[in-house]
Amino acid sequence: MKGRFITLEGIEGAGKSTVAAFIERTLQAAAVEVVRTREPGGTPLAERVRHLVLEPGTEELSALSETLLMFAARAVHVANLIRPALARGAWVVCDRFTDATHAYQGAGRGVPPALIDELAQAVHADLRIDCTLWLDLPVPEGLARARSRSAVRDRFESETLAFHERVRAGYQALAAREPRRIHRLNAAAPLATVEREVDAVVQQLLRDRAP
Ligand code: Z5A
Question: Which CATH number belongs to the domain containing residue 75 in this structure?
Answer without folding.
Answer: 3.40.50.300
